[in-house]
Amino acid sequence: MNATPGTQQARPATRIDGPDKVTGRARYAFEHRVSGAAYVWPIQSTIAKGQILNVDASAALALPGVLAVLTPDNAPRLAGDDPELALFQSRAVAYRGQLIAAVVAATLETARAAAGLVRVGYEQAGHDVTLTPDHPGLYKPDHVNPNFATDTEAGDPDGALAAAPVCIDRTYRTPGEHNNPMEPHATIASWDGGELTLYDSDQGPSMAARVIAGVFGLHPDQVRVIAEHVGGGFGAKGGPRPNAVIAAMAAKAVGRPVKCALTRQHMFAVVGHRAPSIQRVRLGAGRDGRLTAIAHDVIGQTSTIKEFAEQTAVATRHMYAAPNRRTTHRLARLDVPTPAWMRAPGECPGMFALESAMDELAIACGIDPVELRIRNEPDAEPETGKPFSSRNLVACLREGAAWFGWDGRDPAPGTRRDGPWLTGTGVAASTYPARAMASQARASVDESGRYQVAIAAVDIGTGARTALLAVAAEALGVPAGQVTVHIGDSALPQAFIAGGSMGNASWSWAVTAACQALREQIRARDGAIPPGGLSAQSATGDAVRALPDHARYSFGAQFAEVRVDADTGEVRVPRLLGVFAAGRIVVPAMARSQFIGGMTMGLSMALHEESTIDPRFGDYPNHDLASYHIAANADVGDIDARWIDEDEPEPGPARAKGIGEVGIVGTAAAIANAVYHATGIRVRELPIRLDKLLR
Ligand code: MOS
After folding, report:
1. What DSSP line would sit under 363-428, residue for residue?
2. Cα(10) to centroid of ligand 1, in Å?
3. d(Cα 47, Cα 271) in Å, to the nearest integer?
4. What is the pLDDT of residue 649?
């Protein structure tokens, strides 16, 4: 009971739910035991655009064990404002793979077999799924996600570019990419009168309950969402997905609990993706490498039913000093599934382009790429003039260069050879916003001195449960062993989602406030806890709104060493080092794992990930992990993440900036820059497949 707040002894060093996970005690959404459950299997459209003329379910309904077939003819009317959740509400088909019907049956196998017997008649219309730089439908959205200006301009970028002694003008492309969390999306739904309970795999039980209540016209208190363990999300589970709606709808139709698990193949149409981008970056600079102008013009895509405007050029607004600047975003509405969040949406594809262009500028100026970035470090946020709450990009670059062994690097491309391998190194900067959102938490203690902390946070594999325990124990000033943390349930005090790298900062703030309030109560009673125990609840809304109007970001420097087989174009990455400044690191083991996870996803983006769309069918043929390639152990040797001690005074008592996304940002550019250094070939269109490296 005498542990000093902040001492290492108060903190758990490893995942507290590790034993539950490795022994199988931890239950993911689909694994919860509910008696009498039926199963639902979704049916997807086989055309990319048109109308459903008729749905013939007679053969499916004749199969023993089939309980119902939900179609646009018989589905209950839904409310809510997300067209992707308005299942079976219309006969219009907006993309191939759209959910158009579902079979409910006593077993999963029966539901699946019966789904194959449902006959759907269509009137097919012509579709357009191909993004081009001159697409006739390009338009300017009102804003880009989540609520940024679509375009920004300062000074005279065109004039400055025309006058610049050194000018880089390049177009970079990133392909469509699909989030593939290990646990596919799944829901179990059960109704008790007008009350709905969902076991759901999502990134935020409070938000999921609120959205699903809206869809079914319920009060949020009538929906309970339990997400005890979640096997990854990366944005694909940022809000509830069609699996939750379909399970709830089916459960209502058959009067039994219903289980819905999407397959990996379903996910490629149903849970969002990172939209492809076409990005023109122009950099004007003096011969000393000092930027005079930056222009970043982005073309992206959305669906025809919902606008999702990825904020691809937004990072460019705060990275480097330059008096003349412009960023723009244009979108085409295509007959594709609606894009959605995928780890560092905006920053990740945008920084591939900007950080590749910075490498090209360094070469054009004959300046070391680490030094070039340091030379363009701004004093305040370039487009707003706001002070940075803390900004340690330069420290990340300097310390990273020292750790990586960057000094003395010969800049000449395509000159180092080790047997069949051409070798090279590359660097790129990383950044991600550091924000916190209003959340609530409760802390209580019983007479025996056992503490309970409750918040509707969720652990999607990040170690959030462990981090919150560390934060709670520290704020309470007791050993972690005396504290139990309850998360993963919308019945707990309402919390923000595990998204936007805001989970820990938002939840820690609320947990700290509740624990401090409880501690005050205990102190006021001279430590005597009454028979009924004590409890305190805190909400951070006012404190979040009272934060000073500063520019808050994490920063990082990514270093890569690559080997490229001169004959086959095969790329290997023997070393990746990320050095980050992300405020206070709460639990080092988990932070390291998050950073490395992000970097691994960036490696995957650099070398493999590409959702190719077939223009004839309007669909992604590589919609499984056999043909949608992701990085594997053989791609990389030593992958290491480090951080510098950053004393961030804001935001909130945890002083943590969030680490979920900064790790992916810049990794692909560092690898592409290293590939150029190794081979002399600049790949401006991801992924860096071997065919692009064969002359
Ligand atoms: Mo993250 S893409 O904000 O879940």
Report:
1. HHHT--HHHHHHHT--SS-TTT-PPBS---HHHHHHHHHHHHT-TT----TT--EETTEEEEEEEE
2. 30
3. 18
4. 72
Q: What is the pLDDT of residues 357-380, one digit of tens each?
A: 999 999 999 999 999 999 999 999
Q: pLDDT digit string (tens) for 556-570?
A: 999 999 999 999 999
Best residue among 234, 312, 502, 554 to mutate for probing ligand 1's pocket (most ligand atoms within 8 Å of CB) is 234
Residue-level pLDDT at 2: 30
Among the listed residues 269, 263, 237, 201, the one whose alpha carbon sits nearest the alpha carbon of residue 342: 237
Taking Cα atoms as reference points, which of 487, 494, 664, 449 lies closest to residue 578? Answer: 664
> Encoding tokens for residue 653?
């008592």
What's the confidence (pLDDT) of residue 12? 72
As a whole-number percent, the residues of the chain with pLDDT over 90 amount to 94
User: Whole-structure pTM over 0.70, yes or no?
Assistant: yes
Reference 69, options 118, 21, 35, 121; nearest CA is: 118
CA distance 663 to 601: 9
Q: How far apart are CA 264 and CA 232, in angstroms?
A: 14
Question: Could you report the per-residue pLDDT of 145-156, keeping only the tens digit for each?
Answer: 999 999 999 999
Closest CA relative to residue 71, chosen from 103, 47, 97: 103
**Active-site residue among 383, 474, 609, 661?**
661
Paired tokens of 427: 């660097």
Residue keyed to tokens 């193949």: 265
In this structure, how many other beta carbons lie within 10 angstroms of the beta carbon of residue 484? 14
Sign of the dihedral defined by the CA atoms of residues 466, 469, 475, 481, in that order: negative
CA of 238 to the centre of ligand 1 (A): 6
Cα 602 to chain centroid, rounded: 12
Q: Sorting pLDDT into bands at 50, 70 and 90, what band is 656?
A: confident
Q: Which residues pair with 328 in a beta bridge?
A: 297
Residue 3 pLDDT greater than 60, yes or no? no
Contact (CB, 8 A) for 482 and 469: no
Which residues form the pocket of ligand 1, taking CB atoms under 6 Å from any ligand atom? 203, 233-235, 238, 341-343, 345, 499-500
Positive or negative CA dihedral for 242, 244, 245, 249? positive
- Mean pLDDT to the nearest integer, 253-281: 97
648 pLDDT tier (thresholds 50, 70, 90): confident
For the question of residue 661 being annotated catalytic, the response is yes
Q: Which residues contact 174 (CB under 8 A, 6 or more apart)?
A: 274, 276, 277, 279, 349, 352, 353, 605, 685, 686
pLDDT at 653 over 70: no
Tell me what the pLDDT averaged over the chain comes to.
95
**Ligand 1 midpoint to CA 608 (Å):** 21
Residues 103 and 44: their CA atoms lie apart, in Å, by 11
In DSSP terms, which residues pair with 188 in a beta bridge? 199, 259
Closest atom of ligand 1 to 236 CA is 4
Domains of the chain: 36-126+180-270 (3.30.365.10), 143-177+274-434+550-692 (3.30.365.10), 437-545 (3.30.365.10)
Q: State which ligand 1 atom lies nearest to the alpha carbon of 238.
A: 4
**Considering only CA atoms, which residue is closest to atom 4 of ligand 1?**
235
Q: What is the mean pLDDT of residues 59-82?
A: 96
Cα Rg of the chain, angstroms:
26
Would you give the DSSP letter of residue 624? Answer: S
Distance 498 CA to ligand 1 centre (A): 7
CB 433 within 8 A of CB 552: yes
